[in-house]
Amino acid sequence: MSRVKDVAPDDLDMESTRVRRAWLRAALEHGGPPGADRRQAPWLLASLLVASLACAGCVGYAAVSSLTEPTASQATTTGPASPSPADQQERQ
């Protein structure tokens, strides 16, 4: 006969609970199963790469758009090349 048949179902539940608690306690004390960091490292590196590319794209777009579009201060200081007819009538 096997040992499982001789044990009451309640005792099996208690033993499985003890084992699970021991696993959780060991995981909390030692930081999880071995090798868990190695499985997450590629994902961490990939997400850092994507974030750096997005940041570089935003900076590049801002630099190019600031070079190609006139700023508000440049538009107000240059003014019109010749006075408009309405301005000439107001001066007279």
Description:
- By secondary structure, the chain is mainly α.
- It has a domain at 1-59.
- It has 5 helices and no strands.
- It has helices at 3-6, 9-30, 36-68, 72-78, 85-91.
- It is rod-shaped and about 115 Å long.
- The chain starts with a helix and ends with a helix.
- 0% of the residues are buried.
- The mean pLDDT is 79.
- Keywords: Membrane, Transmembrane, Transmembrane helix.
Number of helices: 5
Please give the share of residues in helix. Answer: over 70%
Care to count the β-strands? 0
Sum up the overall morphology in one term.
rod-shaped
Gyration radius (Cα, Å) is 36 Å
Mean of residue pLDDT values? 79
Low-confidence spans: none
Biggest sheet, in brief? none
Termini separation (Å)?
120 Å
